[in-house]
Amino acid sequence: MALTLVALLTACGGSSSSSGGTTSGASPSATGPKNALVRCPSNTNTTAASPETGQIHLVVAGWASTPAEDALVKQGLQNFEKLHPNVTVTWTPIPGDYATKMRANVASGNVPDVFYLQPPMAQEYIPAGKLLNLSPYMARDHVSPSTYYPSLMQDFDCADGTVFGIPKDWNSLGLFYNKTLFQQAGLGDPSNWTWDDLKNAAQKLTKRGSSPANSVYGIALPADASRWGAFLFANGGQMVSADGKQALFNSQAGIQAAEFYTSFELNHTGVMPGDVGASWDGDAFGKQQVAMTLEGGWMIPFLAQNYPKVQYGIAPLPIGPSGKRGNLLYTNAWAAYSGTKYPGMAWELIKYMTGADYQTQVLHDGFALPTLTSLANDSYFQQNPGVKVLQDGAAYGQPDFYGVADTEIHNDVSNALQSIMLGKQSATDALNAAAQKVNTWIQQNVAP
C-alpha cells in the first residue's frame, strides 16, 4: 500500500567507524522517549561529525513502492543533491525480503550508509551498535525530538532515550464507511460512535442474500492483531508488559475486546474478507460487499484507482467502554549505519528527508502523513478532512510494535482471533493459549 510501503534509503558503507567517541551515553539535550523494549548499545558515538568535504557518493537503496511514490523519493534525493553539489546520491532498491537481505548485509559488513529502519529491525540493530547515534547531531543542530510525535519516535529510541532513527511518515486507522449504504440504512455521521453504536449500525447495514457473495455486511474485520489491537487499547488493555517480557493481552480487558471484535463474524453482521472472496478489507469495501472497515490512508489511493465511484467518509474509531478511543500507529524511520564513512553527510540526508520541505511535499502529494507536529495544521488537512481524521489518530494511538516478541505476538494473537471467529475456541481460551505461547517464547529467547 502506498502509505505503508515507504522508500528505504541505503548506501555502500565503509568499514571504518563513524567520527566521534565510542563510549555509551547520548547528549541529554537531544533524547527522545525512553523505550524499555530496546536495550541501548554498550558503545556508540557521543559526538557529531561535521559534513564531510570533497566528492561524496551516497548510494541510496530501498524497496520499490508505486511508481508515483518512487518518483517522489527520487525527487527528494535530487533536491538534496542540489543543496549539496559535492554529493552524488544513487538510488538502488533492494528487491524481495528487505529485512532479511539487510540482515545479510550487516553480517557481511556491506551495510548501506543511510537506510529505512523498521521497528523490528530497531530492536535488533540498536543493541548491536549497528546504527549511528543521532542524538549528538540533533543536539548540535537544535532538532528536538519533540519536533516529532513522541509515539512515533519511541520505536527508534532505546531505554535511555538515545535516538537512532527519525520517523519519516506514518499512518493510523480510521473507520471507512460507505455514505450511500449509510443513507439507505438511515444512519448519520459516525464520528462520535461508541462500540454499541458500531454494533447496532452493523446490524442495520447487513442485507443477507442467498450466499455471502450476494450479501452486504455491516463491516469487514480480519483476524489480525494489527486491527484488533485498537480495540484492546480502547478498552484499557495492554498487549505486553512495559519491559516486553510478559503477554498481557489475555487480561479481562483483552477478553472483552476480543469478544466484541469477533462478535460481528459470529453474528453474521461482519465478515473476514475471504468470506466474500476479497483479498483484503479494502477490496471488500470497494466492491460494496461491506459498508464499513478499519484501514489507514493507503485506502485512499487504492479506492481512487480501483473503485472511484464509491462514495465514502472516514471517521475516528469508536469510543470503547473505558470512554476512550484506541488506535494503532504504523511507521518506519530513517537511520544511518554506525560504520559509515560519511556520518556527517548521512545525518544531513536524514535531516533533509525528515524536514518540513520534503514532508510537506509528501503530504500534499497524498502519500503519507507527516511526522512533524508543526504540520498538523497544514492547509491540506482543511481541504481533506478525512486525512485529518487519520492525523488526529496520533493523539490516541499506540505503535503497533511490541519489542523482541513482536512477530510472535502478532502471529499468535491473529491465530487466536481466527480460532474465535471460526467458533473453535472461546475468547478466554484462545487468548490464554496465545499468551502461554508468547510467554514460553520469551522465556526461551530473551535474557532475564
From TrEMBL:
<dbReference type="GO" id="GO:1901982">
    <property type="term" value="F:maltose binding"/>
</dbReference>
<dbReference type="GO" id="GO:0042956">
    <property type="term" value="P:maltodextrin transmembrane transport"/>
</dbReference>
<keyword id="KW-0813">Transport</keyword>
<feature type="region of interest" description="Disordered">
    <location>
        <begin position="13"/>
        <end position="36"/>
    </location>
</feature>
<dbReference type="InterPro" id="IPR006059">
    <property type="entry name" value="SBP"/>
</dbReference>
<feature type="signal peptide">
    <location>
        <begin position="1"/>
        <end position="20"/>
    </location>
</feature>
<feature type="compositionally biased region" description="Low complexity">
    <location>
        <begin position="13"/>
        <end position="33"/>
    </location>
</feature>
<keyword id="KW-0732">Signal</keyword>
<protein>
    <recommendedName>
        <fullName>ABC transporter substrate-binding protein</fullName>
    </recommendedName>
</protein>
<comment type="similarity">
    <text>Belongs to the bacterial solute-binding protein 1 family.</text>
</comment>
<dbReference type="GO" id="GO:0055052">
    <property type="term" value="C:ATP-binding cassette (ABC) transporter complex, substrate-binding subunit-containing"/>
</dbReference>
<dbReference type="GO" id="GO:0015768">
    <property type="term" value="P:maltose transport"/>
</dbReference>
<dbReference type="Pfam" id="PF01547">
    <property type="entry name" value="SBP_bac_1"/>
</dbReference>
